[in-house]
Design goal:
Elements lengths: L6 H13 L10 E6 L3 H6 L13 E6 L7 H10 L1 H4 L10 E4 L3
Antiparallel strand pairs: 1-2, 2-3
Length: 102
């Protein structure tokens, strides 16, 4: 059995997953990301068949809880304390989303 995945889909998924993380290089209060697929619907909806993944341009957003400029303080808030509080990432079910008409 040979299985091939569209490289565009893989790249979009990787980009989406990185977007969900809080990183020091992105200190904006509202993180946004345009995706070519409806990842939130697919992941949160418990879908397992890739055929159920809709190809629709979607803008996702979430409130970045750690926007500190000082590295040690950012690490403390995002990783040390943030692990329990969820400051280091956004779970897909909490994303804001807008489907864009192209």
């Amino acid at each position: 059995m040979q299985y091939e995945t569209d490289p565009v889909l893989i790249e979009d998924l990787i980009s989406f997953q990185v977007f969900l993380l809080s990183t020091m290089d992105h200190k904006e209060k509202l993180k946004t990301h345009d995706s070519s697929f409806a990842w939130k619907d697919f992941l949160v909806g418990g879908k397992t068949d890739i055929a159920d993944l809709k190809r629709v341009t979607t803008e996702y957003a979430w409130e970045n809880k750690v926007t500190l400029a000082e590295k040690a303080e950012w690490c403390y808030k995002a990783i040390w304390v943030g692990r329990n509080q969820g400051n280091y990432k956004c779970h897909p079910e909490f994303l804001l989303e807008t489907q864009l008409v192209t």
